[in-house]
Amino acid sequence: MAVVVVTDSSSRLGGELRERWGIRQIPLHVLDGDSDLRDGVDDVPSDIHDRPRVTTSGATPTEIADVYRRALADSGGDGVVAVHISAALSSTYSSAASAAREFGHAVRVVNSRSAAMGVGFAALAAARAAHSGATLDEVEAAARSAAQRSHAFIVVHRLDNLRRSGRIGTAASWLGTALALKPLLRLDIDGRLVLSQRIRTASKAHAALVEQVLEEAGDRPVGVVVHHVDNPDAAEEIGERLTERLPALRSLEISGMGPVLAVHVGGGAVGVVVSVEAENQPSS
């Protein structure tokens, strides 16, 4: 058998990609009144981020343990590596660590310190290693290495969602007085959402976002995913700029940010996750 990789729905890995690499997914939750909608399982309204009383919830220890248990059985005892959304952004990681205690060292839980494809890149790296026959220690190391090589930036067009979310961390002090601000945020080394630049217009914020990605990538080989919340035109434009200017771009995809993240960052948000390739990384 082989090590099985588990992630959560924040990773934004499509069903075809998960099936190809044998990645199991645990849904996060969107709470709309009396409705508890499972991301990736239930039909979540496309305007969910515009609803004022919507919140989100991480996966519970019981939900996570059930997936870990099945994955461990399917691995034939080779083990499970689970890659989850940043512990600074969701309770999912702490629930995962709690659930994993039942299985001892057979289940390894990795804090991606990221979100969206920052989680996805780490899960994919782990799954590729598992597919090649790597040991449990090696698969875990592949996930942690990829997590360290991923960097995430986001431009937020509306501040209402951030005010409600409580996940803005050290950038919170300017939210109360900002007017037409289109902040450029990033996930820091601890996986916290922090302010990178204060910018007044969307066009200038998108330009600054591109420059930050270019600075982070340098001339190294990278994979890039541009995420958005109901803003495909801006995402396409940013993707085109990066395609033209990144000297060693290996891949670039554009995808939605997903309902869980959308609830916190609001409509119009555009983000980029850039993953620096490891030497001798297997092709996808």
Structural class: alpha/beta
**Radius of gyration using CA atoms only:** 18 Å
- Summed up, the helix count is 9
Helix content: 25-40%
Task: Point out poorly predicted stretches.
Answer: none
| CATH topology tier name of the largest domain | Rossmann fold
* Mean pLDDT value: 92
| Biggest beta sheet attributes | 6 strands, mixed
Work out the number of β strands: 13
Cα distance, first to last residue? Answer: 21 Å
The ordered H/E elements are EHEEEEHEHEHHEHEEHEHEHE
The order of strands across the largest sheet is 10-9-8-13-11-12
What's the number of domains?
Answer: 2
Percent in strands: 15-25%
CATH class descriptor name of the largest domain: Alpha Beta
The general outline is: globular
CATH architecture of the largest domain: 3-Layer(aba) Sandwich
